[in-house]
C-alpha cells in the first residue's frame, strides 16, 4: 500500500524559509521513479492548487505564484520529494500535500502538512 507522509510545515515569519519533505513507501521497487511527483496546496477559501511538479523524466514545473521562490527536488533512491520554500509570503499559508501520479490512473496523496506565514 502506497503511503506519502509530509513533514516540515510550521509557523514562519514573512520572508522566512521552510523545507517540506515527503517520504514515500509501499511502491513496488523500481517504480517510484516512473511517477510524477508534485506538491499541491489548499486553503479553506480556495480549491487545491498545483505548486510544483517534478516529472519522471526529470523536468520541473512551477506555478506562477512561486516566482522563483520555491525549489522542488526528488531522490529516487530514497523515495523522497522536497520543497524548499524561500521568501515566504502570508499568501503561502496553506496545507501542503504531496502527490504521486502515474499514467492518469495511479494517483496517491499524503495527508498534508500545514504552513503558516505570519508575523
Short note summarizing the structure:
This protein is mostly beta strands and 119 residues long. The chain has no helices and 11 strands. 0% of the residues lie in helices and 55% in strands.
Polypeptide structure, described:
0% of the residues lie in helices and 55% in strands. It is mainly β. Strands 2, 4, 5, 6, 9, 10 and 11 form a seven-stranded mixed β-sheet that branches. Strands 1-3-8-7 form a four-stranded antiparallel β-sheet, with no helix packed on it. Strand 5 and strand 6 form a beta hairpin. The radius of gyration is 14 Å and the shape is globular.
Secondary structure topology:
Layout: E1 3-7, E2 10-12, E3 18-25, E4 36-43, E5 46-54, E6 60-62, E7 70-75, E8 80-85, E9 94-102, E10 106-109, E11 113-117
Parallel strand pairs: 2-11
Antiparallel strand pairs: 1-3, 3-8, 4-5, 4-9, 5-6, 7-8, 9-10, 9-11
Amino acid at each position: 500500500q502506497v503511503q506519502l507522509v509530509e513533514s516540515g510545515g510550521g509557523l514562519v515569519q514573512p520572508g522566512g524559509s521552510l523545507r517540506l519533505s515527503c517520504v514515500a513507501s509501499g511502491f513496488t521497487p523500481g517504480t517510484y521513479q516512473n511517477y510524477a511527483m508534485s506538491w499541491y496546496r489548499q486553503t479553506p477559501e480556495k480549491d487545491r492548487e498545483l505548486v510544483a511538479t517534478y516529472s519522471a523524466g526529470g523536468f520541473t514545473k512551477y506555478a506562477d505564484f512561486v516566482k522563483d521562490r520555491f525549489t522542488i527536488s526528488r531522490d529516487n533512491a530514497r523515495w523522497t520529494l522536497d520543497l524548499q520554500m524561500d521568501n515566504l509570503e502570508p499568501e503561502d499559508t496553506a496545507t501542503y500535500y504531496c502527490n504521486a501520479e502515474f499514467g492518469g490512473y495511479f494517483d496517491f496523496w499524503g495527508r498534508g502538512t500545514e504552513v503558516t506565514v505570519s508575523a
